[in-house]
Specification:
By secondary structure, this protein is of the alpha/beta class. It is built from twelve helices and 14 strands. The protein has two domains: 196 residues, Rossmann fold; 132 residues, Dihydrodipicolinate Reductase, domain 2. The structure holds nicotinamide-adenine-dinucleotide (NAD).
Length: 371
């Protein structure tokens, strides 16, 4: 059951966009050029900003500061949440309990505890909560996975990520800008390639003397996965010269050969004669949007539905913990600890009871295993 009115099986979905900041503008343009959806309302705490963005993007839409109210006035049937991570839960909660499915920017929450509570909340509300983990949607990444599948068992995957952006704003003030704001993409891509679960991580982070960030702009993390493979991410956000792509530079070392990918073009591989064909689809956030709408229509579960996305956030939180303590972190154990904390601190009775019904965080891992 898709839960969508029959008219929306083909018609573009009317959506409310929440958060008219930098990324919100990208989303407005992406929705505008998509056959799948159209923006009918914009919500921001800063109403003046919402109005300015609507004017500048030439949109005649309903404006407001409450998602349920703007949805009711505009006839929206879904929500795209592009607010800052700390605001994701209140916006998602209001939308889901108004009966609106949500596509929410990454990271779904600032903490694993918050993410686990939102997974239970989505269950109680009975609606789809999908995370836009947009770097899964690259045709050449799909091809790299198809190559890796042909190369047999994977021993190791590495990503080098070296860039030197001057963002200004919140990233410059974060304690772990690279690990929290960026590396979640590569960690999630590694899960996508390996089709396995992360079990441990050892991570070191530091801030080069010339860094223009307050927090650690450089990090190296090595994860062990439950199929025996290792994944190593090493990178920096204050690394001028010979920069990698935004996807990073990848190597997959496997039983029957090796593949490399610069994150932009086609992968190259030893061990296979021809590169596999893969379907080309919309990329980045356009890919997220297409999957969200396709799954709403078909009733399928998206690959980054909140339960399935939680292990990627767990990789980030575990890497940060390892960097802080200097210890190797056991990820399933961390998830159990965070689950206990989620039960203890959830303020809504219905959501807390749902969390208790899970019995253990294996509930989430069960959903994730379906990926
Ligand atoms: N996928 C990517 O590659 C990518 C790139 C950049 C940003 N992002 C993500 O997009 C999100 C937004 O980032 P940004 O750079 O646009 O931030 P931003 O600060 O520029 O914009 C956020 C907007 O949300 C509004 N807002 C905050 N709380 C709100 C609430 N409760 N209700 C309504 N509006 C609220 C703010 O007023 C602001 O206008 C973050 O989660 C970020 O990690 C993803």
């Amino acid at each position: 059951m898709s839960g969508l009115a029959p008219g929306y099986q083909q018609e573009p979905l009317p959506v409310v966009l929440v958060g008219a900041g930098n990324m919100g503008r990208n989303w407005i343009r992406t929705v505008g050029s998509s056959p799948d959806a159209r923006v009918v309302g914009i919500v921001d705490l800063d109403l003046e900003l919402a109005g300015r963005v609507a004017r500048e993007e030439a949109l005649d839409v309903v404006l407001g500061s409450s998602v349920s109210e703007v949805a009711a006035r505009s006839g929206a049937v879904a929500v795209v949440n592009v607010t800052v991570p700390a605001a994701h839960r209140p916006v998602n909660e209001e939308a889901l309990f108004t009966g609106l499915p949500v596509l929410c920017e990454k990271p779904i929450a600032p903490t694993l505890v918050d993410a686990l509570q939102q997974a239970a909340l989505a269950e109680v509300a009975g609606g789809l909560l999908m995370v836009s983990q947009s770097r899964r949607f690259f045709t050449e990444l799909t091809r790299l996975r198809a190559v890796a599948d042909r190369l047999g068992r994977v021993g190791a995957i590495t990503t080098e990520f070296y860039k030197a952006p001057h963002f200004g704003g919140f990233r410059d003030r974060m304690e772990q800008p690279l690990l929290v704001d960026m590396a979640i993409h590569q960690f999630d891509m590694a899960r996508y390639l390996l089709r396995a679960d992360p079990v441990t991580v050892s991570c070191s982070s530091w801030n080069p003397a010339w860094s223009w960030y307050d927090g650690d702009a450089s990090a190296t993390a090595t994860f062990a996965f439950d199929d025996g493979a290792r994944y190593t991410f090493t990178g920096s956000w204050c690394a001028p010269g010979r920069e990698t792509s935004w996807n990073g530079s990848w190597r997959v070392s496997a039983e029957h050969g090796t593949a490399v990918w610069d994150g932009d073009g086609a992968p190259e591989a030893d061990g296979i004669d021809t590169l596999p064909d893969v379907p080309a689809g919309p990329e980045e956030i356009a890919g997220s949007l297409a999957e969200f709408v396709r799954c709403l229509r078909s009733g399928e579960t998206p690959q980054s539905e909140i339960h399935r996305n939680i292990p990627s956030l767990a990789m980030v939180e575990a890497a940060v913990l390892s960097a802080d303590t200097g210890e190797r972190v056991d990820i399933p154990r961390l998830l159990e600890q965070r689950y206990a904390e989620a039960v203890r601190t959830e303020r809504r009775t219905d959501v807390r009871e749902r969390l208790e019904q899970w019995g253990s965080v294996a509930h989430v891992r069960g959903a994730e295993a379906l990926r």
